[in-house]
Amino acid sequence: MKFAVSLLILINLNTATVEELDELPGIGPVIARRIVEFREKRGGFRSVVELLAIQGISERRWQELRKLVEVRDPGSYRPRSPSRRSDRMRSPRENLRRNEWTGQYAVGTVP
Q1: Distances (CA, A) of 24 to 75, 83, 87
Q2: Band of the pLDDT at 20, cuts 50, 70, 90?
Q3: Residue 9's pLDDT band (boundaries 50, 70, 90)?
Q4: pLDDT tens-digit profile of 46-104?
Q5: Is the CB of residue 65 less than 8 Å from the CB of residue 87?
Q6: Do 11 and 67 meet the contact criterion of CB atoms below 8 Å apart?
Q7: CA-CA distance, 10 to 104, in Å (whole number)?
Q8: DSSP the chain
Q9: Which pLDDT score is estimated for 108?
């Protein structure tokens, strides 16, 4: 009896090179470059569904690709650093000082 062994190796969208992506069915060098550019612009993929945002990947092509790719290494994401204003808006009350003339709260010391 002979057994056919098929290994399914999923390609990680957050680490794949243009050459690796080019080997996927229906993906040529142009779309592979678009995938890498999208990843670099956005800081990585969070989900395989994001492939649909790339020009040249239709719903039908995505249906085939989603079985062959995965998204791992969510640590590659760099969350946006909050602005100083949002930091002030989220400061706990004990970090706020009350202005004795206006009664309003402010971050830090009040002159």
Answers
A1: 25, 40, 44
A2: very high
A3: confident
A4: 989 999 999 999 999 999 998 999 998 755 444 444 444 444 454 455 555 666 666 66
A5: no
A6: no
A7: 56
A8: ---------PEETTT--HHHHHTSTT--HHHHHHHHHHHHHHTS-S-GGGGGGSTT--HHHHHHHTTTEE---GGG--PPPPPHHHHHHT--GGGEEE-TTT--EEES---
A9: 52
List phi, psi (to 5°) of 68.
-110, -10
Coil vs helix vs strand at 11 = strand
Q: Which amino acid is at 19?
A: E
Angle value at C-alpha 31, between 26 and 35, nearest 5 degrees: 115
For residue 18 the two structure tokens come to 């243009």
